[in-house]
Structures are given as C-alpha cells and as structure tokens.
Amino acid sequence: MSAPGRDVAIVAFAQSDHHRRRTDDVSEVEMVMPVLHEVLRQTGLRTSDIGFTCSGSSDYLAGRAFSFTMALDGVGAWPPISESHVEMDGAWALYEAWVKLLTGEADTALVYSYGKSSPGSVRDVLTRQLDPYYVAPLWPDSVALAALQAQALVDAGHTDEAALAALAARRRADAAANPHAQVTGARPQGDYVVAPLRTGDCPPIGDGAAAVILAAGDRARELCARPAWIRGMDHRVEAHSLGVRDLTDSPSTRLAAERAGVFERPVDTAELHAPFTAQEVVLAKALGLGDDVRINPSGGALAANPVMAAGLLRLGEAAAAVHRGDSDRALAHATSGPCLQQNLVAVLEGDPR
Known about the structure:
The chain is an alpha/beta fold and 353 residues long. 33% of the residues lie in helices and 20% in strands.
C-alpha cells in the first residue's frame, strides 16, 4: 500500500560482518548486540527513546521455542518496552513497524532480525515451510526446489547455465565493494549442487544480523541528513501448492510492486532478495527492470545470506544508497518460502537534491 498521510523513513541501518561461515563462539544475543549499538549510535538515540521495537527470526533455526525472547536481552526490555515479533524475515517486521508509525502510535521504531544457519542443515530446516501433507513428506530441500525453478526457466528459454554463471559473477564482483559481504570476487561456478544449479548459483551459508531505525516526519529529518522515505510497501503470497504455480513468473511480486507504487516512476536502484541466480531472472522480469537499473550493487543474497535477515538487508542496503546520495528512488524486495512464495516490495525515495 502507499503511505497514507504520514511520512515515515528509514534513518539508520547497520549489519553484522558476514565474513565467517560459522559463529559458534557467540550466541544470538552476542551477535545482535553490536548491530543494535551501531544503529542507535548513528542516530544518537537510546533504547528508551524508541517508541516501538519489532524483530524477525525463526525458532526453527535456533532449535528452541520462543528463542526471540532471549534476543531481547540485547535490546534491553526493562523498563518495559512496546515490542512485537514476527516469525519471518525482518523485512516483515519492518512492515509491521511501518504500519505502527503510520497510525501515529509511535514516532520512532527499532527493527532487527538475525539468524544462525550454521549449527544445522538449513536446507533441511527450510523444508518445514512446505505443505505438510503432500510436499514436506517427500523432503525436497530448498536447493532442489530452486533447481526445479531454474530448470523451468531454462526449458522456457528465459535463461541458460552460461547466463546464470555470468549473473553470479557480476554479483560477486559487486560485493567486492561491500565490506560486510561473505563471498566476493571472481570464482569458478563449481560443481552441480542440484542441476542446473552449481555452487556459484547458490547463496553462502552464514550467520548474521541486521537492524534499521524508522522515524516519522520532522523526527526523521532531525535524525538523518537524507532520510530514505518509504513511499509505499506491500507484500503478497503465491498459492502454497507448487503444482498450481508457474515457477517462471512471480505474480505476487508484480502485484506487491504495483500496490507499492513501483511502476508510477522509474527506479534507479533495486535490491532484490534473490538467494539463487535464477530467482533474480524471475524477479527482474516481474518488476520490469531494465539495463538502466542498478541491481544488487551490494552483491545481494549471493554475497551474504543470513536467513531471516537477508530480506531486511535488502531494505537496509537500498536505504543506505539513498542516505549516501547514490540513489534517488530505490526498490527493495524481500522473499520467504520456496520458489519466491511470499514477496514484499518497498519504494524508498530521498528528498530532492
């Protein structure tokens, strides 16, 4: 939906360094705390100044119920704070916080998300998102399903393995300028993981966290020299059954983009949450992105993919581009579920130069 009445912006963004595949020596709280401290430092705010706090994570990754309550130790929940949580990528936590500020119930919000994928097999953990009656019992993991989507694109003539390899090379080259990226620079595509996807077509496994601060109206201008105003944001979902979907297209992304106002004016930058190369092909087509749009200048999820934080990273990277003056109108996208099942799209704009 487009923002009704009240202007809300992302005024600060911080993320962990994703250089290490495993962070066995730190807990979720220890992983999140430096990121929270950094995002607050950028604005000069204290925890007590925040009107609403919302987080995104997954108990399945942590292996215990209500694991997010432990992460609140990193925020500081005493004296009591106004707080919420989504069992989703942090991009959906940002959506909840945005709506909260639009209603006028708060003027500032802290949004954070985190995930530790390294302790177990994230490919198996993500099967818990599948239809529990017909698909999940077959145990197709996340890479196998992404390969099914990639093969559908190849069969339809929308791409081929050489084009996917070139796309992967571009993203890793872009990531060389990102000090937080896990995988950067030129590297061979490697062996097949599940054909037609090779190692280079797949995201790295790693642990990480991200955080943003939202503020409304004049408060945003006080906290940030060039706020990234959220002009619209929407999220939609595909049918749960993979058998009734056209895996070469993403109608939910297109509809979310339409409702968010993406097609009203051209964007100059797009941060797409595409963990697999073939998914970027689908998203670019659904969003009508041409060669004049900078896609994933941060390297995207192919360079760093902390599960439950990678979508919030796309919103944060798009906002940071606006803050720096590198973008005037940016698109940010987040996804969850198999084969781009759920999709969120936001439009961020900077004040005229």
